[in-house]
Amino acid sequence: MTNTLHRKGSSQALKQDFVVFALPKRDMFSLEELVSKLKTFTDICLSHHPINMGKYENRSLRGIDPRRMAEEMEDSIALTAVYGDVETLGSVIKALVAADLGISINISGLMDDVQQCCRDAGITRHSAEQSLGIFGRTELLPSREVLEINTLCGHGLVSFNLIQKVLTEIKLDRMSPEEGAYQLARPCQCGVFNLQRAQQLLESMRLKG
Amino acid sequence: MKINEDRCVGCGNCLPYCTMGAIRIENRMAVVNEDECVECNTCYRCCVPEGRRPMLVRTVRRWLHRFRLQYNAPMGICPTGALVPPDLEWPRLIRRAFSDPTVSHGETKLAGRGTEEIKTNDITGRIGPGHAGVVIDLGRPGTGCFLSDIEIMTRALATLKIEFESNNPLTGIMENPKTGAFRRDVLGEKVLSAIIEFKVPLGQLPGVLEMVKKTAGELNTVISVGVSSRCEDDGTMPHEKACQDAGFLASLNGKTNLGLGRPLFMGDSK
Fold first, then answer.
1. Torsion sign (Cα): A107, A110, A116, A119
2. What are phi and psi of A140, to 5 degrees?
3. Is A191 left (phi over 0), alpha (psi -120 to 50) or beta?
4. Given CB atoms, is B140 within the 8 Å cutoff of chain A?
């Protein structure tokens, strides 16, 4: 599960892109305990107004309709949540530390920013993973912006062609960048697609012509 | 993916959703390139059936065409519900197991694309002090890869006496994990991406990364490489320096395990 490890972008862009994960180990708790802990995780995430979320359903992670987040998450358990600034992330981490759920929590994002959030919350990070980049037939890859959008979905389900199609629709004025980002989020099945970043990228690609 | 030929009206709405670009329109009908399709089901999930009658849609489209007009259905719709996920048999079902994150893997006994890596390291202690975890995501981003390409990498790594992660589904389909050889019947299968996982002593990391980089040049796809480690007491990431010394620059972003899992791995003081 290297789902969010290889998100691309400048440091400025990545400052608006943080993903929080809960990784529950089923054998550590009774089912009742686990559900209660994950419900607390969900409530903490929701109270900090995430950009997107992924919920647990039918023994796997499912993306939600971010425009209907409140309804989608009612009586559901979240495993992922996306935030667009480090201040909110810091607040989420503090709340999770205080809740002491005993569940493994991971953050995907700028390492220095996450480490500072850990310090502010009075903890030291346990383990860390970084990307060393892309190797092999890189000539097969599209432009930087398309790649940045594609890697916003951890499983790579937002195809290069779909990104190009949405961009064409936007350039023809048949779709707004906001709607475009929403359309691009649909294939993502773990709810880690950052719609705000996608919208910004689509806007900048439209201006480029 | 299968296209129901009786229902397809050749609108092309499903084309951009295909992660591998494997769908084309031929004689006013969507056609799937079976070699390239990785059975991720993205087209099926994203193109919601509109419930139109194929005959009616075809007639309307034909009439519009006569007047040099066309009707573009909104994105994310299959007017007639022509996309049909097929029942897959071995070895083709490997494609879906690795490419569709929504399916469970009871039939293959495979547990997704990879393991939890460092995400539960606070509880499992899988990557301990002095070691680095390595993940090689083949076919990513967006190109997909055949198992035969993955085998080129696993065979190369096996010469370094790498011990592949036993819980990783790729290891599960190896004929011989000591040589990195896969079962012969799976080599022609293509997946959206697959992850090779293993851990090595930090001192061995430079040699391994050199081998990965060299072998990547022999593949007909791209790979994304990640490295992880258990942090020092002050939060330092030991793998970072090892990578830097070997000439590999680690990304500014990455994944951080906060260490909030309980009970902590035995002997872990944090």
1. positive
2. -75, -10
3. left
4. yes
Mean pLDDT by 10 residues, chain B (270 residues): 95 96 95 97 96 92 89 88 95 94 62 72 93 96 97 98 92 94 97 96 96 97 97 95 94 96 67
Provide the CATH number for the domain around residue A39.
Answer: 3.30.70
Whether cis (ω within 30° of 0) applies to the bond prior to B74 is no
- Fold classification of B110-245 is Aldehyde Oxidoreductase; domain 3 (3.90.1170)
Cα–Cα distance, A97 to A111 (Å, whole number): 18
Cβ-based contacts of B248 with chain A (< 8 Å): 132-133
Is residue B45 helix, strand or coil?
Answer: helix
Interchain proximity A100–B260, CB inside 8 Å: yes
Q: Indicate the residue of A14, A151, A187 with minimum beta-carbon distance to B17.
A: A187
Which residue in A167, A22, A190, A136 sits closest to B142, CA to CA? A136
A21 CB within 8 Å of a chain B CB: yes
Domain identity same for A26 and A110? yes
Same domain, A112 and A18: yes
Note the residue count of chain A. 209
Q: How many domains are contained in chain A? A: 2
Q: pTM, whole model, 2 decimals? A: 0.94
